[in-house]
Automatic annotation (TrEMBL):
<feature type="domain" description="Nrap protein">
    <location>
        <begin position="15"/>
        <end position="152"/>
    </location>
</feature>
<dbReference type="InterPro" id="IPR035368">
    <property type="entry name" value="Nrap_D3"/>
</dbReference>
<feature type="domain" description="Nrap protein">
    <location>
        <begin position="209"/>
        <end position="361"/>
    </location>
</feature>
<dbReference type="GO" id="GO:0003723">
    <property type="term" value="F:RNA binding"/>
</dbReference>
<dbReference type="GO" id="GO:0006409">
    <property type="term" value="P:tRNA export from nucleus"/>
</dbReference>
<feature type="compositionally biased region" description="Basic residues">
    <location>
        <begin position="676"/>
        <end position="688"/>
    </location>
</feature>
<comment type="similarity">
    <text>Belongs to the NRAP family.</text>
</comment>
<dbReference type="GO" id="GO:0032545">
    <property type="term" value="C:CURI complex"/>
</dbReference>
<keyword id="KW-0539">Nucleus</keyword>
<dbReference type="GO" id="GO:0006364">
    <property type="term" value="P:rRNA processing"/>
</dbReference>
<dbReference type="InterPro" id="IPR005554">
    <property type="entry name" value="NOL6/Upt22"/>
</dbReference>
<feature type="compositionally biased region" description="Acidic residues">
    <location>
        <begin position="731"/>
        <end position="746"/>
    </location>
</feature>
<dbReference type="GO" id="GO:0034456">
    <property type="term" value="C:UTP-C complex"/>
</dbReference>
<dbReference type="Pfam" id="PF17404">
    <property type="entry name" value="Nrap_D3"/>
</dbReference>
<dbReference type="GO" id="GO:0032040">
    <property type="term" value="C:small-subunit processome"/>
</dbReference>
<feature type="domain" description="Nrap protein">
    <location>
        <begin position="549"/>
        <end position="669"/>
    </location>
</feature>
<feature type="region of interest" description="Disordered">
    <location>
        <begin position="671"/>
        <end position="746"/>
    </location>
</feature>
Length: 746
C-alpha cells in the first residue's frame, strides 16, 4: 500500500467521496496494534509503516464484511495540520473517506443460510449482531440489522436513521474488530438530520405524493360525462420529485359546535395572525383535440374556466372528493394532498414555440408552460436514477436562499444546474460515477458554480443525450454571437435551445456574480475544514452577511410567512385528524413575505434591488442600484424622488430615510421596521446562529464545534474586511465572471 496522503493537497479529491469521518488514534493504540500484527507476515519498521498497515487492514475488513455493493472505495488520509509523521502528539487525527454503492441504505444485511459453513463463518464474524431470520422464500439466513426502524415515526425521521448506516459499519469494524477505543470515530458532516432540517420538515414522503397522484390519474381516466376527455396528466411540481418539502394539508381547528362547523371560524394557530403557508402540487393536463376552442387566447381561457367547473361537478358526483373550481385552475384534495390542476392547450403551446426566440416579450406565466411538462418528466427520471438528487436540490436551494437570492433564481433553474452536476460528476472514477449522498451531490453543485465560466460558456443540460456534438458546437457559436443580449447565466436544454426562458425574467448580473463569488469562497472554506477533519456545520455554512446591503426591512413576527408546526402525533392520530377535515381546504399559497416583496419590486424595482431568504422569512434586504446611487446627478422630475441635497457639500445623495418610510407605508403594517443595514447587524445574526447551533450539539461534538467556532470568528473578520468588494453598488455590474476579478469599491 502506498503512503498515506494529505487530504488537503488536492481539493478535487473531495468530489470522489460520499461520506467523511474523522478518526482519532492514540500512540498507545498504535503500539498495541503493532504487537497484534507482529505474528503476521506484515512487518512494521516505523510509525509510518504502522499507519499504512492499519489503513490497509481497515480497507480489507470493510470490503470483506460490508461488500462492494455497499462500499466501492475506502481511503484513509492524514489531515493537513499533521503532515509531519514524526509528530510528538499522543493523538493523531485521520480522515476516513467512503464512496458508497447502490445498496448502502439497506438496513438489512442478508447473509448465507444458517445451517451452512458459510453461515457459521458469518456468525463468527458479526457476533451478537447476527440473528436468524426467515425470508419470503422460506430460507433461514443469518442477518444483520444495522439500524432499527420506528414504524410510528415520521417518514423523514426514518430517512435520517437510514443515513446513519455507513457510520454503523465503521463503528463495528473500528471498535469491535480493530479494538480502537470507543468515541474515536465521528462524522465530519455532523448528524444528517441537522443539515436536512435546514428547510421546514416534510411530513409527507415522496411515496405518499406518488400514491395520491396515481389516484388522481385513475380518477381522470375513469371520470365520465365530460365534454372532452383528459388524455395526458403530468405532475410538474418539485414536491413530486422530492426537491421541495410538502406537508400534510393543514387540519383547521374548529371553533364552535361540531354540528355547525362549516359555518364557524376555522383556525390553525390561535397565536398567529395569519395562516401557515400551505403549498400545492401542480398538475398539467392535456385534452383531446377539438376545433371549437378557437385560436384567441381570451376565448381559450373562457373555455378552460367552464371546463374546470364541469370537471369539479363530475368529480364530486362520481368520486365524492373535494374540489374547488377557480378561474384559471381547479383545486382537488386527495389523501391530504392538495393538487392544483391546469389545462394546457395545444394552441397556447404552438404560440409559445413561435415566440421561443424572444421570451423576454412573453408573460412569465407563458415562458414555462411550453416545455415545463417535458422538463419535469426528465427531472423526475433523474430523481429516480439518483436517490440523492431530491435532497441535493434542497441543499442547493438552501445555499442560494442563504445568499439572499431566492427571488433572483427560478427553482427550476436550480434543479437543472444540480441535474447537470449529478450527470457530469467531477473527480469520479468509472466505477464510481454516481453521487450517492445529498452532501456529495451538493459538493458537485458548489464546484460547478465556482468553476464554470458562465460568461464564455453556456450550461448545456442534456438529460436524455439528445444533442449531437455538432448540435452542441452550433449552440455554442450562436451563444457567442448573442452573448451581449443574453442573461448572465444561460441554461440550454433540448426544449429551450435559446437557454433564456428561466433566466431572462429574474436573474440580474449582480445576482449571478454574487452567487459565483460566494460559491468560490464557501468552497474554499469547506475544503479547508474537511482537510483538517473538523466538523462542518452547514447551518453556519449557509449563513451570509447582511451588512453588504443598504436597508434591512424587518417583518413583524405575527405577519411573516411561516410553516405549519410539526406535532409529534402517532400515525393513527394523524389519520384521524386528516379524516376529520377531509371536506376542508385551508388558504393555499398565502406567502405574505413574497407578496410584499413583489410590491416592493413593482414600485421601487427601477431604483432598488431586493433580496430575501425564502426559508428565513422575517427579513427583506434592499440595495440601491448603481445608476440610482450615482452622486452629483442633476435633479429632474424623473429622478428627484428619494434624492436629497447635502447642505454641507452641496451634492445630491440618496435619501435612505425617505425610502425606508415609503417601504413601511407600502407594507401597510406588515413590516416592523426598516433601517440601514450595518456590520453590527451581520455580527449579531451570526452570533445568534452560532448560539442556536451550540444548543443542538451533543457531548461527542463539543470539541469539534469549539474548533469550528474559532474558525468562524476568524472568517468573520476576513469577510467584514471584504464587505466593500461584495456590495451591490460596486462599479462592476457585469455578468458573472469566472476569472475571479474583484469588484471596485466605493
Amino acid at each position: 500500500m502506498e503512503e498515506l496522503s494529505i487530504l488537503g493537497e488536492n481539493p478535487e479529491v473531495f468530489l470522489q467521496y460520499d461520506d467523511l469521518y474523522s478518526l482519532n488514534i492514540g500512540a498507545d493504540y498504535l503500539s498495541e496494534f503493532g504487537v497484534l500484527i507482529a505474528k503476521s507476515k506484515k512487518k512494521a519498521k516505523s510509525k509510518t509503516d504502522l499507519e499504512k498497515i492499519f489503513a490497509q487492514t481497515l480497507q480489507e475488513m470493510t470490503y470483506k464484511l460490508i461488500g462492494n455493493n455497499r462500499v466501492t472505495k475506502l481511503d484513509v488520509f492524514l489531515t493537513r495540520n499533521e503532515d509531519q509523521l514524526e509528530s510528538e502528539d499522543n493523538v493523531r487525527k485521520y480522515v476516513v473517506a467512503l464512496s458508497l454503492g447502490e445498496d448502502w441504505a439497506d438496513p438489512l444485511f442478508r447473509g448465507p443460510q444458517s445451517n451452512t459453513p458459510e453461515g457459521k463463518e458469518f456468525r463468527s464474524q458479526f457476533g451478537d449482531l447476527s440473528e436468524i431470520r426467515k425470508y419470503a422464500d422460506n430460507s433461514l439466513c443469518e442477518t444483520v440489522e444495522w439500524v432499527k426502524m420506528n414504524k410510528n415515526a415520521y417518514p423523514e425521521e426514518n430517512e435520517d436513521i437510514l443515513k446513519s448506516i455507513p457510520q454503523r459499519w465503521l463503528e463495528f469494524i473500528v471498535y469491535k474488530k480493530l479494538m480502537v477505543p470507543e468515541g474515536s470515530l465521528s462524522s465530519v458532516i455532523k448528524k444528517p438530520r441537522q443539515w436536512t432540517s435546514l428547510i421546514p420538515k416534510s411530513q409527507l414522503p415522496p411515496s405518499f405524493v406518488h400514491s395520491a397522484f396515481a389516484k388522481l390519474g385513475k380518477m381522470f381516466r375513469e371520470v365520465k360525462d365530460l365534454p372532452l376527455a383528459i388524455v395526458g396528466v403530468n405532475c410538474v411540481s418539485g414536491h413530486y420529485r422530492n426537491t421541495e418539502p410538502l406537508q400534510y394539508c393543514a387540519a383547521p381547528k374548529i371553533v364552535g359546535s361540531a354540528s355547525k362547523s362549516a359555518m364557524k371560524k376555522l383556525s390553525t394557530d390561535e397565536n398567529a395572525s395569519i395562516l401557515p403557508l400551505q403549498q400545492v402540487v401542480e398538475v398539467y393536463t392535456s385534452l383531446e383535440r377539438n376545433g371549437k376552442w378557437g385560436k384567441v387566447p381570451t376565448q381559450i381561457e373562457a373555455y378552460k374556466t367552464l371546463y374546470y367547473d364541469t370537471l369539479s361537478k363530475e368529480l364530486t358526483k362520481q368520486f365524492k372528493c373535494l374540489t374547488v373550481p377557480q378561474k384559471d385552475r381547479i383545486i382537488i384534495k386527495i389523501d391530504g394532498v392538495v393538487f392544483s390542476m391546469r389545462v394546457v392547450h395545444d394552441e397556447e403551446l404552438e404560440k409559445q414555440r413561435i415566440e421561443n426566440e424572444n421570451p423576454q416579450k412573453v408573460p412569465e406565466s407563458f415562458t414555462k408552460h411550453a416545455h415545463l411538462a417535458i422538463t419535469a418528466q426528465k427531472l423526475h427520471s433523474i430523481s429516480q436514477k439518483f436517490s440523492a438528487f431530491g435532497e441535493g436540490v434542497q441543499l442547493a436551494k438552501r445555499f442560494v436562499a442563504g445568499a439572499k437570492l431566492s427571488n433572483h433564481f427560478d427553482p427550476l433553474a436550480i434543479e437543472l444546474m444540480v441535474a447537470y452536476a449529478f450527470l457530469n460528476t467531477k473527480g469520479r472514477d468509472e466505477g464510481n460515477v454516481k453521487a450517492m449522498t445529498p452532501f456529495s451531490g451538493f459538493l458537485q453543485f458548489l464546484k460547478l458554480i465556482a468553476t464554470h465560466n458562465f460568461v464564455e460558456q453556456p450550461l448545456i443540460i442534456d438529460m436524455n443525450e439528445n444533442f449531437l456534438e455538432e448540435t452542441k458546437t452550433e449552440l455554442i457559436e450562436q451563444f457567442k454571437k448573442r452573448r451581449p443580449v443574453l442573461p448572465p447565466i444561460v441554461l440550454i436544454t433540448p426544449e429551450d435551445k435559446s437557454g433564456v426562458r428561466l433566466m431572462a425574467k429574474k436573474t440580474e448580473p449582480f445576482a449571478a456574480k454574487r452567487l459565483v463569488e460566494l460559491a468560490r469562497r464557501k468552497w474554499t472554506e469547506l475544503v479547508e475544514r474537511l482537510a483538517e477533519g473538523k466538523h462542518c456545520d452547514l447551518r453556519v455554512f449557509f449563513t451570509t452577511k447582511a451588512s453588504i446591503y443598504d436597508l434591512k426591512i424587518q417583518i413583524s413576527s405575527k405577519r411573516r410567512t411561516f410553516y405549519q408546526v410539526q406535532k409529534q402525533l402517532q400515525q393513527s392520530t394523524r389519520d384521524k385528524v386528516t379524516k376529520k377535515c377531509v371536506l376542508m381546504v385551508p388558504v393555499l399559497e398565502f406567502d405574505v413575505t413574497k407578496r410584499l416583496l413583489a410590491k416592493f419590486e413593482t414600485n421601487f424595482g427601477s431604483k432598488v434591488m431586493f433580496f430575501y431568504d425564502e426559508f428565513e422569512t422575517d427579513k427583506i434586504f434592499a440595495a440601491l442600484r448603481p445608476n440610482f446611487k450615482a452622486e452629483n446627478v442633476q435633479l429632474t422630475l424623473t429622478n428627484c424622488p428619494l434624492k436629497k441635497k447635502n447642505l454641507f457639500t452641496n451634492e445630491t445623495e440618496v435619501n435612505l430615510k425617505a425610502l425606508a418610510e415609503d417601504l413601511m407605508i407600502l407594507g401597510q403594517g406588515t413590516e416592523e421596521k426598516a433601517k440601514k443595514s450595518t456590520k453590527k447587524d451581520s455580527k449579531k445574526t451570526k452570533k445568534m446562529k452560532k448560539e442556536e447551533v451550540k444548543d443542538e450539539e451533543d457531548e461527542n461534538e463539543q470539541e469539534g464545534s469549539a474548533d469550528e467556532g474559532d474558525n468562524d470568528d476568524s472568517d468573520e473578520v476576513n469577510e467584514e474586511d471584504s464587505d466593500d468588494n461584495d456590495r451591490p453598488d460596486s462599479g462592476n455590474d457585469d455578468a458573472a465572471d469566472s476569472d475571479g476579478e474583484e469588484e471596485e469599491s466605493d
